Amino acid sequence: MQVAIVTGASSGIGFGTAVKLAGMGIAVVGVGRDAGKLAELEKAIARPELIAAVAVDVTDDDAPRRIVEAAMSRFGRIDFLVNNAGAGSPKPLHETDDAMLDGFLNLMLRAPFRLAREVIPLMKPGSAIINVTSTFAVIGGRRGGAYSAAKGGLNALTGHIACQYGALGIRSNNVAPGVTVTPMVQGRLDDPTFKRINVEMTPHTRLGEVEDIASTIAFLCSPGGSFINGQTIVVDGGWSSTKYLSQHALTSTWTAAE
Fold first, then answer.
1. Residue 66 phi, psi dihedral angles, 5° rounding
2. First-to-last CA distance in the chain?
């Protein structure tokens, strides 16, 4: 039985990914800060033999050791690491203080780095690390600030892991979601500017959903993804790779940017 560590598993993309992987028969070590939400994950998976919950802040100094020890003591192996834990609502560079900078870098770059460092020595050929980055690691984005810096660094880390450890049979790839309807962004969908930037510029009939991202991660953990290494799979409906504007946007009255 294969085993996957999924961080940020208590909600959103991490929750959906954990459920998806368990549905494939992969045992999941679900990591999150909220023990109550992790209990909901256990209920959703509904197969106790396939889930171990670890309530820990991934930025804690002892988090990698605790997570890996939990995985090895429960399942005896680690095949996949999904570095998904993250946070949103960044500010542009000139509004970002050191505390916000350190918070984003610690959560979305330092923590994945340290956890991967702990996991790699235990991985066998056929294992994989999937880092959940962002379209803001692919193109420049307004208000990206420390978020863009952290995700961009994670993108570069993926390339290093793919090169350094690929010959050992350990792959590493990025999954870069666009705006995905999760609790983290739900409230922003009521913001007209946010909707214009995302809905009106996406050449698809909808925004991304958790299932879209979870399915892509699951593919990279499947035999079908076994020769994919050092790549970024962008899951955004074409938002970052086109210059699309909806008919509504094209026919609307525009005002000068602030």
1. -65, -40
2. 55
What positions carry a catalytic annotation? 147
Cα distances from 179 to residues 14, 123, 164, 236, in angstroms, run 15, 32, 31, 7
Query: What is the reported pTM?
Result: 0.93
Backbone torsions φ then ψ of 24, nearest 5 degrees = -90, 0
Residuewise pLDDT in 10s, the chain (258 residues)? 999 999 999 999 999 999 999 999 999 999 999 999 999 999 999 999 999 999 999 999 999 999 999 999 999 999 999 999 999 888 999 999 999 999 999 999 999 999 999 999 999 999 999 999 999 999 988 888 999 999 999 999 999 999 999 999 999 999 999 988 887 777 777 777 777 888 888 889 888 899 999 999 999 999 999 999 999 999 999 989 998 888 888 888 766 665
Tokens of 102: 């350190």
Strand partners, 177: 235
Instruction: Output the 3-class SS for 93-131.
Output: HHHCCHHHHHHHHHHHHHHHHHHHHHHHHHCCCCEEEEE
